[in-house]
Amino acid sequence: MKTVRTLLLGLTLCISAAANAQFTFKTVEDAVELLPSNIILPATAGGMMSFRPCDAQCDKPYVRVRLAAETTFSIDGKRMKFDDFRRSFSAARISSTSYALINYNVETRTATNIEVLTSE
């Protein structure tokens, strides 16, 4: 009988502790879908890029993130090095259905992936 009471007391304490626990979630990485025209690329792979976090023309302030060796670049699903990406991005035919997706680490402000799709 004492074992059952101890078990019930322990179970009650566990349930009440779980009910009182507060969980906090922290965003580590953000993904932003935007128009390719809202992107300003740096001249070199180690520079800072700027973008307006909008999927249309807007007046939101620019966000600046650093490019790193780990940052991946792709246009229309084709992965490439930064220099090729920059050239292809400049020459790309951007239409009304084009968009870009930028993933970046919120804490370090470092881009992890930049993907541009020029058509659907």
Q: What can you see in these coordinates?
A:
- This protein has 120 residues and is an alpha+beta fold.
- The protein has one domain.
- Helices cover 24% and strands 32% of the residues.
- The chain has helices at residues 2-20, 82-91; strands at residues 29-34, 39-40, 48-51, 63-66, 72-75, 78-80, 99-105, 110-117.
- The protein has a five-stranded mixed sheet, covered by helices on one side. Strands 2-3-4 form a three-stranded antiparallel sheet, with no helix packed on it.
- A hairpin with a 2-residue loop joins β5 (72-75) and β6 (78-80).
- The mean pLDDT is 84.
Q: Strand tally, please?
A: 8
Helix content: 10-25%
The oligomeric status of these chains comes to: single chain
Give the mean pLDDT: 84
- Please give the largest β-sheet: 5 strands, mixed
How many H/I helical runs? 2
Widest sheet: strand ordering: 1-7-8-5-6
Count the domains.
1
Radius of gyration: 23 Å
How far apart are the termini?
Answer: 69 Å
**Percentage of residues in DSSP E strands:** 25-35%
Class computed from helices, strands and strand pairing: alpha+beta
The topology string of helices and strands comes to: HEEEEEEHEE
Shape: elongated
| Uncertain spans | none
Summarize the structure.
The protein is of the alpha+beta class and about 120 residues long. Helices cover about 25% and strands about 30% of the residues.
Element layout with pairings:
Blueprint: H1 2-20, E1 29-34, E2 39-40, E3 48-51, E4 63-66, E5 72-75, E6 78-80, H2 82-91, E7 99-105, E8 110-117
Parallel strand pairs: 5-8
Antiparallel strand pairs: 1-7, 2-3, 3-4, 5-6, 7-8
